[in-house]
Every structure is written in C-alpha cells, then in structure tokens.
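QA checklist item 7 of 12: single-chain prediction sanity check.
[x] sequence parsed
[x] length recorded as 453
[x] structure emitted
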Amino acid sequence: MRTKIPTATWMVRSFAPQVKDEYFIEVDPRASRVAGYHKYQDERRAGPRLEQPQALAIAQSVFARYGADVAAFDLKEALNFQQPNRRDWLFHFQERTPLVADAWRRISVRVDGAEVTQFTTTVKVPDSVYREPTTLLNIVLTILRALGALAILSLIVAGFVMALRRQRFPWQRTLRWMLALAVLPLISVAAHWELTLFEYNTSIGWQTFISNQTINIIRNVGLHLGMIFLAVAAIAAAYPQAFQLGLRESRARLGRSAAVAALTAISIVLLFFAGRQALVLRFPALASMQGFNAPEAVALPLPGLLGIFSSILLTLTICALFGLFIVALRSFSSKSWLPATIGMTIVFLAFLDSSANLHQTPVMIVFAAMTALLAFFIIRYVLGTNLLVYPLTIAVMVLLSNGADLLQNHRPDLIANGIAEMVVAVLLLVWVAAPSLEVFEPQRHKEHGEKPL
C-alpha cells in the first residue's frame, strides 16, 4: 500500500497570466518520479472526436509511464464530454485486488481529443462512508461543544475586563513589545509567498492578483500585530510581574523547579496521548480516526527558523488566553471547589467530538473527561503557582512538536531543521534552569547587613 498510493506529494504548477492552459504535475518524493498529471485547457480548442475504443487505447498506453500495471486494472466507468470542437473522455480504472477490506486503488485518465490531460491515483471506499447521516446525537454534541467554546471565549473576555480594572491600560509597554515582535509576522508572510501563487486564477490579470495579494498581506500582518498587542496587554494587565521572569535572579529562584515541572507535564501529556493512540489503533471502531496531513513546513524555506518564530508567537498568545481564563475563573471564589469544577466542565465540553457515531460516543466521552481531569491535575499539582513554568512548558512543547514533525521526513534538510528545533528546546530549558540561587544569596545578605549561613 505504501508504494501504490502516492501521499504527501509535491504539486508543481506551471501557468502564464491570462492563459487558460496550465499544468499541475504531481511528484512523489519517495519514488523520485512523476505520480500524476493534470492539464487544464480551453474547452474550445480543436481536436479529434474519438470513439471509446480509440480513446481507451490512448488512456491505457500511459499507465507504464507512471509506474502502473495496466493489466492489473479493470475499466469501471467511461464518460464522454462533447466539446464545441472535439470529444473528451474520462476513464475510471479500478485495481482487481483491494488495498484493504473495501478500499480499492483507482486511476482516472482523461483524454481530451487525442491528448492525455489527466492521470490521477485515488482510493475508492464505499459511498456509505461519505454519506453517513447526521443524527440527533451529532447535533447535541455540536451544541455542547459550541457551548464549551463560547464559555471559554466569554471567560477570556471577562478576564481581560477584570484585569484592566486593576490598573491603567499598559499601552506603552505593549507598544514596545509589539514593535519588537513585528518582524516575526513579516518573515512568516515572506516565507509563505510562493504558496500564495497557487491561488492565482488565470482569468484575471497578473497585476490585479498582485494588488489583491498585497492587500491580503497588509491585512494578515495587521491582524498578527493586533493579536500581539492584545496578548501583551492582557499579560501586562493580569500578571505585570511576568515581564521580570526572564531576569537572571527570577530564573535562579524559579527556573529549576519550572524546568522539572515542564518536563513532567510534557511527559504526562505524551503518555496520555500515546496511550489513547494505541487504543484507537487496537480498536479502530470505537474511536474516530484523524486524517493524515503533511506539515506545511516541508514546503517552506528554513522551516526550523520559522518554527522557532511561530513558537514565540504561540507561546505569547496561549499564555495570554490561559492567563485571562484563570483570572475569570478565580472570580467564582464563593466556593473553593467552584473554579476547578467550572474549568473542568468547560474543558470537557470543548473536547467533545461532534462527528462521533453511537458506537464511538462512550469512548469519546471517557477521553474528554480524562482530558479535563488531566488538565486539572497538571495545572494544580504539577505546574502550580510558578509563573515561569507556563510559558516554558508551552514553548518547549511547541518546539518539540514542530521538530518531531520535521524528523519524520526523509529529506536531510528537514531532519537538520527538526534537530535544530529540538536543540533550541533543550537550550531553552538549560537557560531557564542554569542560574544558581547561591549567586544572589551573598548579595542579599550584604544589603541587609547579615552574614550568609
């Protein structure tokens, strides 16, 4: 199956502005060969009007070019499309031996006139998989999950308002931080420029496309800067002491415990999700399976550097949102157990899977409840009240996750970038935990006129 189905392939697009002819060439990096091809052209272009046997012979003649054995396939469907000046054919071939159970390898070949303009490989599964009806259970789960998301958003907004009531809006510090971090979204936009070319529609002018992309870039950068501004403002209002955590003395007091707690929390989370994944693979009918997606980083220049920059923005944003969420929960202090109960309930609702069917629902509910309990346990008993541990845990987790994605590839450059992100995560832990408290003890005793013990 690994060699029959091209996955995580590269798609190369060739086009000229305002010319209908364009080419999409699919390249399988594992086999280092072209795996598919699609040419779009003007439907008014002249060509022969072939009958099915002639067009079928042309379609079958290209199988060997793409590494497929035509003798292993049966013709399942033949469709013809009458164009103004030619006749087009679309053939669907299916392999005689299934890949697994009811999953079949299919190849579609399009012949425009006498020219092959499409060769694609897909997997055919029963239509019932796509036509699974939406039940009342799915609707209820969707409503509950929406309520959880709405509750999280409401508490974050409420926490922001509560934090701003304590002191003036810290706009000066916020503006300085925003200007210092403004280069990160600019670098991200520049790195994604080539991917935006796939959005070009050849029916519009090139200058119009460039103008539209420029407007989109300005909008996206503005949104990122606004997000940075609000995140820094939230942290400055709710936890003004957080900006001192990077100082050497703060790291000397909190760093080692923060590093130990961060590694402990990450280990617990990894064990939990590894156990969940093992259970899903052992009993696939009891849980919904997630699709496979190749990370976008494989198509970007210097993905390791971009991953480090994205971890900075993600850490800042997540810390701000989580901090405001906690500020709002603390307002329910009439009962000591109420904040934790509300928090776990909201997390439980947010982790419900609305796509689960009746057989998958019990396991899904158990996993959602375990996630809520695990979040409470980690926050209460592992991370605790050490402010330094939260950004450290998030940053290290994001860096390790990005690095792990890159290390799963065979390309040496991606492996090197993945290792670089792992190294940065380790260096971050060392930087936080390295300062010793003993360095500051003599100075403090000296200021108070005391002798160190």
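[x] summary fact logged: The longest helix spans residues 248-282.
[ ] second reviewer sign-off
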